[in-house]
């Protein structure tokens, strides 16, 4: 689990506890844009991330109920990541960041 | 300067390069809520942050054109932090996080 901001009565801090770690928001961006993503898809779109960091972030997102894994192949068995309803509900946060980034180059 | 995500064509990554460091978004929250803030105000609202971390974050925000310092006392000379127009324009990002945090307790 990531380090909490430990500011219990602040809704901004509560959101940051879930998505404030480095790379998590960009994983969320990829999943919002593309729907299902395999591990290697994340590696291709985020070449700066070490695989163990990527694994750790996805595991935390899964523990926090933002993503889940589903099979996309039986032989060999393969899993891909998809957003849960809770994960999809973070769309407006990513959109607000995208809107700002588009306006401020 | 914080470590860049180095994903130049992504507006989300560009926004994160400015506000993605730990604590920066909560400093932004305080300034959006209260307008001008003194250094000790931040220390009071964010007791978990080391003073040197707080200084470093405020300095980076100043370098990135998000905050500026203005005098609020001449004797002794004292400065307080205020948002620039560019800093205020990040309001919708903080609001989206706040809205999410209020809905998901």
General description of the model:
The structure is a homodimer of 105-residue chains. Helices cover 54% and strands 12% of the residues of chain A. Chain A has 105 residues and is an alpha+beta fold. In chain A, strands 1-2 form a two-stranded antiparallel sheet. The N and C termini of chain A lie far apart (33 Å). The mean pLDDT of chain A is 93. Chains A and B meet through α1, α2 and α6 of A and α1, α2 and α6 of B.
Strand content of chain A: 5-15%
- Order of adjacent strands in the largest pleated sheet of chain A: 1-2
Helix/strand/pairing category of chain A: alpha+beta
**Quick one: how many beta strands of chain A?**
2
The helix-strand sequence of chain A is: HHHHEEHH
CA radius of gyration of chain A = 14 Å
Q: Give the mean pLDDT of chain A.
A: 93
Distance between the termini of chain A: 33 Å
Q: Identify the biggest protein-protein contact and residues per side.
A: A-B, 34 and 34 residues
* Main beta-sheet strand count, sense and barrel state of chain A: 2 strands, antiparallel
**Assembly state of the chains shown:** homodimer
Tell me the number of helical segments of chain A per DSSP (H or I, 4 or more residues long): 6
Low-confidence stretches of chain A: none
- Bin the helical content of chain A: 40-55%
What characteristic shape of chain A results from the CA principal axes? Answer: globular
């Amino acid at each position: 689990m990531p380090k909490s901001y430990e500011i219990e009565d602040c809704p901004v801090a509560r959101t940051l506890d879930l998505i404030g770690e480095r790379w998590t928001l960009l994983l969320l961006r990829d999943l919002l844009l593309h729907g299902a993503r395999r591990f290697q898809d994340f590696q291709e779109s985020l070449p700066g991330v070490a695989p163990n960091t990527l694994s750790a972030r996805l595991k935390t997102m899964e523990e926090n109920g933002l993503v889940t894994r589903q099979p996309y192949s039986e032989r060999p068995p393969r899993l891909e990541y998809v957003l849960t309803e809770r994960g999809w509900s973070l769309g407006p946060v990513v959109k607000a960041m995208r809107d700002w980034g588009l306006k401020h180059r």
